[in-house]
Amino acid sequence: MSDQRNQPEAYYGLPQDVTYCKRCVMSNQRPASTPEFKHTTQRKATALKIWDDGICDACRYAEVKETIDWAAREEELLRLLDQHRRTDGGYDCIVPGSGGKDSCYAAHLLKYKYGMNPLTVTWPPILYTDIGWKNFRNWIEVGGFDNVTFKPNGRAQKLLTRLAIENLMHPFQTFILGQKNLAPKMALKFGVPLVFFGESEAEYGNPIAETSSSLRDKSYYAMANLDDIYLGGATVRELMDVHGLRLNEIMSYLPPSEEELGRGDVQVHYLGYYTKWTPQEAYYYSVEHTGFEANPVRTEGTYSKYNSLDDKIDGFHYYTTWIKFGLGRATYDASQEIRNRHLTREEGVALARRFDGEFPERHFHEVMDYIGMDPEYFLELVDRFRSPHLWMRDGDKWVLRHPVWETET
Fold first, then answer.
1. d(Cα 186, Cα 353) in Å, to the nearest integer?
2. Considering the domain 70-274 in this protein, what is its CATH number?
3. CA distances from 191 to 136, 181, 226, 266, 336 (A)
4. SS3 of 222, please?
5. Secondary structure (DSSP) of 227-269
6. 3-class DSSP assignment, residue 118
7. Which residues of the chain have pLDDT under 70?
């Protein structure tokens, strides 16, 4: 046990000592889940991963996947679908997505293999990329799906995104909240009690209910506790009184209200629980059946071309995880592919060293213009959010104190 009294401060409640999973390249600095509605400042704690004998939870789940009777899981899925299957032409399940490989795969599988009638719902990216817009169109046109797209209030979205960067260094918060809450809200509105997301959160080591969850089982108390709810690091009350937003402009980011829940209950399931989910296979399937296309160029910050392509702000999300937790986009991609036995750990270390921390230059000025932030101010904020226990100055550069490639050598 190291003496923490003389060590640099660790922000975000992160462990003082940096260790890496023995199987993938993920470190113990990755939060299991960030409380999206709470005020997470530089020194507020977050929920941290639980490790077992030096192996991260996501790698442990990869072990479990190899022992699962997937035929039995499919039978379980069929029983669930038969309970909700409709023959009157109505929708019997909701599939959220914006045309990425996972939503393409999930929607197509449910419709064409299992005979369901899915309604796809989309909380669109903050700024569509060209390839993202093309894939969304292909998903609907080539795949053959009805779609409801909810475009949030641009004024509110820009403000909340800017505040989330200033207060939390979390540019994706508004998208995550909107995407997660839209599907159950649309399910309640259309009277469809079944929502299917794609891969299970357990793939990344996040704790979730193993099979499904019900909205009534969760603490959806937002409307009764507005003063305790934070968006972009500000309370809902502050957003209204200080920043001039109306409650109506904030509602789309909040969970269903009691009034909405009064219309019925909704079960949220992960298709990845019932089928053996492999990202590369989802990619190949989506290419074949929905016209999905990979990026023509390598994605900034990583070596891959088919993950998280649709939003110009995607690169900022992964760059900020690099700043706050020392974990870049290549680490996330490589860790997942190591678990699926498409890479060796040695290859993952090399890829993380080569691509982690690459600045998202391609869309930088367009994103800054959109949210109304001075580019120099963003760069100043970046340095404020570096945790001292992870970063140190080396001349005129910031360097990680404990990168995975130096730990390995």
1. 42
2. 3.40.50
3. 25, 16, 27, 9, 36
4. helix
5. GG-EETTEEHHHHHHTT---HHHHGGGSPPPHHHHTT---EEE
6. strand
7. 1-5, 32-52, 201-224, 262, 408-409
pTM value is 0.88
Give the separation between CA 371 and CA 162, rounded to whole angstroms.
6
Query: What rounded mean pLDDT belongs to the chain?
Result: 88
**What kind and span of H or E run contains 197?**
strand 194-197
Q: In the beta sheet, which residues pair with residue 380?
A: none
- Alpha-carbon gap, residue 95 to 107, rounded angstroms: 6
Q: How high is the pLDDT of residue 3?
A: 54
Rounded (10°) CA dihedral 267, 269, 274, 277: 170
Residues 6+ away with beta carbon under 8 Å from 217? none
**In whole angstroms, what is the distance from residue 249 CA to residue 27 CA?**
38
Q: Give CA separation, 127 vs 262, 302, 311, 349, in Å.
A: 34, 20, 5, 32
Whether 119 and 95 have beta carbons less than 8 Å apart is answered as yes
CA-closest candidate to residue 124, choices 143, 107, 103, 144: 103
Strands 194-197 and 212-214: unpaired
Q: What is the pLDDT of residue 52?
A: 64
Q: Phi first, then psi: what are they for 196, rounded to 5°?
A: -120, 115
- Tally of CA atoms within 13 A in the half-sphere of 347 that contains its CB: 12
C-alpha distances in Å from residue 230, one per residue of 13, 35, 253: 19, 10, 11
Using alpha carbons only, give the angle 14, 407, 391 rounded to the nearest 5 degrees: 45
**Tens digits of per-residue pLDDT, 143-161?**
999 999 999 999 999 999 9
Closest CA to 270 of 95, 62, 11, 16: 95
Chain position carrying tokens 């089982």: 217
Domains of the chain, residue spans: 70-274
